[in-house]
Every structure is written in structure tokens, then in C-alpha cells.
Amino acid sequence: MNGRAVPPRRLWLLAAGFLVWCSALVVLYALHAIGCAFGWQAGALRWSLAIVLFVHLIVIAWMWRHLATARPEPKLGQAAVFLQTVVVWTLIAALVATVITFAPSLVLKTCI
Amino acid sequence: MVVAGLMAALCGCSGPLSTLDPSGPSAASIALLWWVMLAGAGVLFALVLTLFLLVVLRPGWGSRLPSSRWIVLGGLALPAVILLPLICYGLLAGERLLPLPGHSPPRIEAVARQWVWTFRYPDRGNVATTNVLHLPAGTPVDIDVSSEDVIHAFWVPRLAGKIDAVPGQVNHLRIQADTPGRYEGQCNEFCGVGHARMHFVVIVDRPADYPAALAAAAATTKAEP
């Protein structure tokens, strides 16, 4: 084994991307339901959904950029490098999943 | 055993509650989506099984490709090629099923309570039937689904998809039966000990016979205690 053990709290980074995905799901779902229940204009509701989705994408993209350019601490050895690689790929997966899962709600019928 | 399994599986292809035996445009669209998804799943399964057999029968096969390429091609590209078109098809099919405002077909209220369905016909003098829904053939009808107690779900598998019956809310489902006949519906959300018995009959009448058949059914319901 080379280097010191990676602190366990850093494992939370593995879930970071998909926690943002979860946030997007809850907020978009709630906003859509509230907008339809209160009879918002389709255009206003669509723009609100688009802004919320865009903010979540920005957050994931920022995390991706931040973690992809960060240098792992040398004293933590190969485990830290491996963890960083996996975290970066989970962020990419979360970004793609967020687009595929939620972008269609912007072009489909809002309320009926 | 294979024959027994096939028999059990094929039993679902017909019968009063089979989604694979559609008798209306909504159910036909859903059934087509199911077949398209089955075909997509079949293609993926065949490809994965072929790769698996190649690896087992010819040890070392595929080792020239680096593992990262296998992950990208097999884990991302292959599912994406199958699943993304399926998502697009599913979204378009779902849009076509929506009861959009604009043209206003006849309305029928479906009210659920443990463990009975009551159907009211506002366009027909607000008469009511219990556990029997009468529809005219070949005409789209909007079903306004609600509940008086817990969450139920309205489902006539051969005619349309299901929709929840939620207390305090009215959900809309557009339904159309192509041919006259007798169909069956079922509560499709667990709603208590009587859930399994909470089914109803859908009788689709020829348009000319519909008013008389509905009036007769409503009179029968009224006569019951």
C-alpha cells in the first residue's frame, strides 16, 4: 500500500453529481406541479423549468471542472488518484443523465 | 418446462385484461410501444449473449481491444443507440395520448371508493351506473377520474393506460373503444383488503344503441338498494 488512506468523508464526492441530479428532479417536479396547479402561462412555466435545469447543469459542470483540474494530494497516493477519476466520471454521467432525463420536459406539453 | 413457460407467457397475449390485445387507439399505441421495447431489449440481449458466448468459446477473443474501449462501446454506445430512440418514441407516443383541450369529447365521471366504481354521465342527464361503464363505440370519451377515500387507479387494459384516482383531484383520461363488446377494468393501485375484487365491466355499445343501453343500465343501478 502506498501513501496514507483517503479520508472516508471524501467518499461522499462519489454521490455528489447524482445528489445534484436528485435536487433537479425534486425541484423541477415540484415547480411543474405548482405551475400547473396555479395555472401559470405555459411560456412562463417553461422558462422557469429551463432556468432551474440550467442552474443544476451549471453546478454539475462547475464540480466537474473543479475536480478534474484539482491535483490529488501526493501523500494520499494512488487511492486518491483513483477516487478522483471515478468522481469525475460520475459527474460526467450525472451531467448526461440530467440532460436526458429532464430536458424533454422543456419541449413537451406543460399542463393539460 | 420450456413449453409450460411459453404457455404461461402467451396467456398474457389475450383475454379481458390483456394490454397486448388492444381495442382502441390509446391501447394500440401503448401495445406498439411495448413491442418496440421488447424488440430493443431483444436486440440488446442477443448482442450481449453473442459476446458472452464468443468469450466463453474462444478464450482471449476481444482481448486486443483495451478494456476502456469495451466499457465505452458496450456500456455506453450500445445502450445509447437502442435506448435513446426508445425514449424519443415513448415521449412522442405519450404526447399523442394526452387529452388535450380543443376538441371536447363527451365526459364521464369515474368516482372510486372502497371498493366500488360509480360512473356518472353529465352529458346524459347525470345518470349513474355502478361497476358498469357504458361507452359508445368509435367515439373518444374523456373520463374524469377521482376518489372519495384513498388512492385508486382506473384501468381498462384493452382500451387505454391507467390513471390514478386521487382524493381531492380530478385526473383526465381520454379513452376510445373501436368495436362494440364487453371489456373489463380493474383498480390498479392497492387500496385495501378489497382491492383485488375492485373490478368493473365496460360495455361498448353501437352509437345508435348507446342512449337506450345506458338508460337501461342506469335504471337497474337505481333499482338496486
TrEMBL record, chain A:
The answer to whether keyword Transmembrane helix applies is yes
* Ranges that cross the membrane: 12-32, 44-64, 76-100
Q: Which UniProt keywords apply?
A: Membrane, Transmembrane, Transmembrane helix
Q: Mind telling me what this protein is named?
A: DUF4405 domain-containing protein
